[in-house]
Amino acid sequence: MEFTPAIIKKYHQERNKRHTFYDASVEAFHNLDIHFNGKYPTKLIEDRRPNESAEIKEYRIKLFKPITKGVTSSVFNALMKIYRSDEWGIRFDKTKVPSIIIEEETPEEYINEYLPYYGNLSAWGFNVLLSRLMYDTNAWVLTAPINPIKEDNAYYKPIPIIYGAEQVIDYKLNEWVLLRSEERSKYNYSGMVVEGAVYIYVDRMSIIKYEQRNNSEGFVVGEVFDHNFGYMPCHPIGNLIDKNTLEAILFKSRIDSMLPYLDEALREYNDLQAVVVQHSNPKFWMYEAQDCNKCRGVGTVKNTEGVSIKCTQCGGKGSAPVNPFDITVVRPSSGDQQDTPTPPMGYVTLDQAFIETQDRRIANHVYSALATINMQYLANTPLAQSGVAKEIDKDELKNFYFSNAEDVVRVLDLVCWDIINYRYGQMNVDLYELKPFIPVPTKMQTVTDSMLMEEIKGMKSGGMNAEIIKSGYLSLVENQYINQPYQKMVLSEKINQDHLSGLTDDAINLGLQMETIDRIDAIIHYNIGLLVDQAMSNDANYFDKSPMERYEVLRGLAALKVVTTPVTPTQDQQMNG
User: Fold this and answer.
1) C-alpha angle with apex 25: 23 to 27, nearest 5 degrees?
2) Local structure of residue 488 (DSSP, 8 states)
3) 298 Cβ neighbours under 8 A, 6+ residues apart
């Protein structure tokens, strides 16, 4: 499609000139944005309370607290474990970099050390891209140079720039995209400097900026940069497809399943705030005993022109003004009147149980939201006692981490390729040899130590097989020392070489009495930490031996020990030597 300033003007003026899924992608963005960035949920509240007055709506806005922002932040922080994994990195083969590229300008130096604004591309990937993947998955990323005009011997300095769903105006997949920039053009109008809109058009060969230059919404061509890649250096960041046509795609966030519960938590918390304020400032009531002595109970008086106006003394209520801090005089009832209530004033009693119920409901909504992505362990309030708790599917949780890691890696791969084309495309070099390798981490601490300890506790109380309990301890070590391979190896050795691990002391003593358990194995069991440390100290190549050879070494050391009354350390003490 050939774009001209006149076509850009139509896009600017006509709201219906948008890509097929524009409205749906913007709605998806707003639905999650309120929970990520703490925006006031106008639609959520007004859909539930459509008949509230403007005064009450304004009051709700003043009371609003974005409680679900903390929930989504917890999920984001948990996913940052991907970045902290020892396996993470954008890796280059230095041997494939030709000498024509100077050392300070290699792909590795630029991408991992000197990327403008961000320092390195990994930092951009996790500090910027990851959160946008979660709440604005229909955004696009444009890779463009910050120095489109440069000296012949200089290198372009491209950076990734994200354009949100609201800014992606129209596109045809793999052909072109029209973006609305946050930049503003400036032009003179009637002696004043006026700001106008800026659009960016990207296709397989060029990046063109269109700037508004007059009040009749006319546009002119601004900067033109011919990248000549033969493909667009602009890409949708989403990966999980919701709907698609031949020319457009609607993506879905990987935390979309949390949305119904987060919405309910936010709505009900806003209601709860109003109730709490009522309890903090209870309403005062008083028996109306006397009429206002100025308007005689009517509520209005005549002004000097004979027009009825609101009584200034009682405020139009017709009753005498009341001061709750003053003495109240109650007249005795006459024969034809009902008795005056005693006391004649008080405070409206509000139901405290409602607040407690709402608190529990909100906590349940938060817990349920996290449970949809198997991250309910992030909830501040454990709900196991209430029967609401859902068992964590550790495999599904790993899949969730892995899927998010894949999404980040996919976009970074595209951006790296764009950067390489910008910086080295004019050189006589093999660009594919310069591409980095970005592995998707598989070793991440996706569960907590406390979760694994609870699991081991359940295995023991349930009378599970000793080998299964041993596997629980091995999982705990793997999780706790995932990025400390040496410590993990030593502790795993102490568990694996203890052939009685997982058995109770009573079971071991009974086995010794019945001679079904070898005494040397019992000595190893109760002294495993000391024996492994001694074996490692005696032989620097201890771990080069096979497991059976190492077991024989430990048996030899155990046989030298004289143990009359075995001391029974805890499992934790055994693991820690």
Assistant:
1) 65
2) H
3) 311, 318
Which long-range contacts link 9-18 to residues 24+ away (Cβ below 8 Å)?
A: 9/217, 9/218, 9/219, 11/169, 11/170, 11/178, 11/199, 12/197, 12/199, 12/212, 12/217, 12/219, 13/217, 17/169, 17/170, 18/169, 18/170
Bridge partner list, 193: 188
Are 82 and 408 in contact, with CB atoms under 8 Å apart? yes
The pair of structure tokens assigned to 326 is: 């003053």
Q: Which of 20, 129, 159 is nearest to 406 (CA)?
A: 129
How many Cβ atoms from other residues are within 10 Å of residue 212's Cβ? 25
- What residues contact 196, with CB distance under 8 A and at least 6 apart? 184, 185, 186, 187, 211, 212, 213
Handedness of CA 243, 244, 248, 251 (dihedral sign): positive
Q: Cα dist. 444→2, 17, 184, 308 in Å?
A: 48, 45, 43, 77
Q: In the numeric block, which tokens belong to residue 140?
A: 């696009």
User: For residues 370 and 258, is the Cβ–Cβ distance under 8 A?
Assistant: yes
- Rounded CA-CA distance 555/490 in Å is 17
- The 3-state secondary structure of 188-220, one letter per residue: EECCEEEEECEEEEEECCEEEEEEECCCCCCEE
Enter the tokens of residue 396. Answer: 């599904």
Q: What pTM does this model have?
A: 0.73
What's the rounded Cα separation, in Å, for the pair 298 and 289? 15
Block mean pLDDT (10 aa), the chain, length 577: 88 93 96 93 79 77 87 94 90 94 95 96 96 97 95 94 97 96 88 91 97 84 95 97 93 95 88 65 60 80 85 77 54 58 64 74 90 83 46 79 96 98 94 95 72 71 75 76 81 88 85 90 91 92 92 91 53 56
CA 487 to chain centre: 31
CA angle, 275 then 279 then 284, to 5°? 120
Separation of alpha carbons 234 and 184, rounded Å: 21
Per-residue burial over 52-69, b if 16 or more Cβ lie within 10 Å, else e, is: eeeeeeeebeeebebbbb
Q: Where are the beta strands (DSSP E) in 124-205?
A: 140-145, 158-163, 168-172, 176-180, 185-189, 192-196, 198-203
